[in-house]
Amino acid sequence: MVRITPDEVHLSNPEHYDSIYHVxxxxxxxxxxxxxxxxxxxxxxxxxxxxxRIRRSGLNTFFSRKVVFxxxxxxxxxxxxxxxxxxxELEADLSIDLHYGFRAxxxxxxxxxAFGKSYNLLEKPDLGLQFFxxxxxxxxxxxxxxxxxxxxxxxxxxxxxxxxxxxEPLREVFDMKEVR
Length: 180
Hints:
Elements lengths: L1 E4 L2 E3 L6 H4 L10 H5 L13 H9 L7 H6 L1 H20 L6 H18 L13 H19 L2 H8 L2 H7 L1 H12 L1
Antiparallel strand pairs: 1-2
Helix pairs in contact: 5-6, 7-10, 9-10
């Protein structure tokens, strides 16, 4: 392992990855890594391990063993729906993209649990391809805002009309928020 900057290291041996990135690590990520997400008060985007632990503790009851087991019916319903789709497609001698099928199950379960209303990607003919494409297109923005964090405040201060014109993925996010 070689230190490149005060906040970066280069791992010459991939086996050392787990010695730095593991639950309970004493190494924090650089604050700029998380600042790209634009939410400094989120437990997810907290760079300090100690503050993250405090913020995360407020969410622990939502992910307790009992609560997760209580989600079994939701998971089973979504999995059953995917199996039905698979059977229907097989009977029609058609194919189904299981990559998006499994991802749709995950998103449908998560959104049902987190928002009380599923996105129902399993009900869409493309199994959520449009949703996953939108998420994929948002990725470069995170890299952009990591390099130029001061741009985030300028972009987010812009009127929604301008953002819709400039960014297709953000336009789709705004459209999704209106539907939900």
